[in-house]
Amino acid sequence: MQEPDFATRIARGIDRVILWMAAVPLVMMMIHISFDVLSNLIWNYPIPLTNAVVTQYYMIAVAYLPLAATEFRRSHISVDLIVNMMAPRPRLVLDVLAQMFSMVIFLALALQSLQLAMEKLDRNAFLMEQTSRVTIWPSYFIIPLGFGVVVVLLAVRLYCQLLGRDSPEAEDDPLVKENDV
């Protein structure tokens, strides 16, 4: 197996960082909810603001950050019945066009969600839960981060394909089965 090039190492590094960035809030959410349930059962006193923190921070991170990892593994839903019957060259052209289209869509989503995040920051967005004010504007920046990382990974893959290099999928990743890549 040949040594991965710089672009592949960058893509794999981004993938690992973003997976950790999604895994940490997932574990924190499980612990937080578990303590909230136990606290409610044992002392009849739930942990204040659990609902707000879970829905406004943990769930957003868990939903949007792994988008890049899914794209890195080519695990998004795809219908490739006809594409698999095509010759390699037309299949490559179609793949490049699909990646360019995906980059445009994800970039538009990233820019639109960044604009919304900036508006929430300007307004110092918050919500009221029980009698407490919960600042929520920071969580809005998770969404453009998730979309932006997908754009970066698509750009790296497109760069590799246009130069005739191997596409930087997670080939040695234990989460990916051999037949999936």
Structure description:
- This protein is mainly alpha-helical and 181 residues long.
- The protein has one domain.
- It is built from 5 helices and 2 strands.
- A two-stranded antiparallel sheet has the order 1-2.
- A hairpin with a 2-residue loop joins strand 1 and strand 2.
- The C terminus is likely disordered.
Key terms:
181 residues, 5 helices, 4% strand, disordered C terminus
Could you provide a short overview of the structure?
With 181 residues, the chain is mainly α. It is 64% helix and 4% strand.
Strand order of the largest sheet: 1-2
Q: What share of residues is helical? A: 55-70%
Q: In terms of per-residue confidence, which ranges show pLDDT below 50 for 5 or more consecutive residues?
A: 176-181
Give the beta-strand count.
Answer: 2
Number of domains: 1
Q: N-to-C terminal Cα separation, in Å?
A: 16 Å
Could you say which overall geometry the principal axes of the C-alpha atoms support?
A: elongated
Structural class based on helices, strands and sheet pairing: mainly alpha
Count helical runs.
Answer: 5
Calculate Rg over CA atoms: 20 Å
Q: Residue-averaged pLDDT, rounded?
A: 88
Estimate what percentage of residues fall within beta strands.
Answer: under 5%
The helix-strand sequence is HHHHEEH
